[in-house]
Amino acid sequence: MGRAVTSGGNSGTNGGQSGTAGWIPWRLYLAVMALLWMHTIVNISSELIENPPGDRDFPVWAPFTWEISSAIAIMIILPVIWIGYRRYHWRRLSLMKFAVFHAVGLVMFSLNHVAIMVGVRKVVYAAMGSAYDFSHGNLLLQLIYEGRKDGLAYLLFLAFFWAYDRVTELKPQAEGDGRIEVTTDGRTFYLAPEEIIYAEAAGNYVELHLAAKPLLIRGTLSEFEKRLTGFARIHRSRLLNPVHMKSYVATSSGDLRITLSDGREIVASRRYRDALLNKEISS
After folding, report:
1. What range defines the domain where residue 271 resides?
2. Which of 72, 76, 195, 238 is deepest in the core (most CB within 10 A)?
3. CA atoms of 200 and 216, how far apart (whole Å)
4. How far apart are CA 225 and CA 220, in angstroms?
5. C-beta of residue 256 within 8 angstroms of C-beta of residue 250
6. What CATH number does the domain containing 187 carry?
7. Coil, strand or helix: which one is 280?
8. Are residues 86 and 185 in the same domain?
9. How far is CA 9 from the centre of its chain?
């Protein structure tokens, strides 16, 4: 397998990772968006039905603006909530830390949701020759009112994410030659080493990055380094399966920015660079 080596920009030495590894799966995103827009349509029609033309104290375009601006805000923020859910998964944290993190996340979601939708509404109202007033003289009360609804929405999003995790969870397989046994959530899996793209330390766990989705396994990276024969240490918190290394770029800091077989990028620290390249040459 050929390797592309060029000089590149400084990516730093902190082992950062870029690419699309943390982006919300498109099927999950579309499923949530479908429900969101169904809810939006129902709310708009309810406003118009419950306020017939003769009794309506707002223009006909106003309910569309209210509901669509809220939906747009959620469309923008939802991927960020997913990234937080995956990066600070309950398997990585204690339940208390998980609850605290998402309590803060809920507040931040509500504030950003309000900020975006109010911004959109002000633009639309101005374009229609009117002015939009969100606070109605009591900003705190309005934030609490929106916060109640946003809190329920946030918990619903977490429930969707949890359900997606369960539906897409790998099914246990029969043991075969060369497979390693791993256990998570009371389930035992037998994985062929080539299924694992790379392994990464995550607190008291090791995250095995597979083509489908990652698995969080309780243990240390040192333990997995002994079990994963042929894997290369590329960072103090990361092991790489060289089979999945598609290309790499040398940075000005001496690190390697590696492109994997699935398009993701990870960084190999300069401390482990020579060992990785020697392993590649020997393989």
Report:
1. 172-282
2. 238
3. 10
4. 9
5. yes
6. 2.40.50.1020
7. helix
8. no
9. 26
Question: Collapsing DSSP states into helix, strand and coil, what is residue 108?
Answer: helix
**Contact, 117 vs 153, CB < 8 A?**
no
Burial class (CB in 10 A: 0-12, 13-18, 19+), 129: exposed
Q: Convert the pLDDT of each residue in 62-73 to its tens digit.
A: 999 999 999 999
Beta-ladder partners of 257: 249, 267
Rounded to 10 degrees, the C-alpha dihedral 201/206/208/213 comes to -100
pLDDT digit string (tens) for 42-100?
A: 999 999 999 988 888 899 999 999 999 999 999 999 999 998 888 777 766 677 888 89
- Give the per-residue pLDDT at 31: 93
Dihedral (Cα; 261, 265, 266, 267), 10-degree rounding = 120
Number of structural domains (the chain) is 2
Tokens of 36: 């969101």
Whether residue 9 contacts residue 251, with contact meaning beta carbons closer than 8 Å, is answered with: yes
Beta carbons of 203 and 168 less than 8 angstroms apart: no
Q: What is the pTM of this model?
A: 0.60
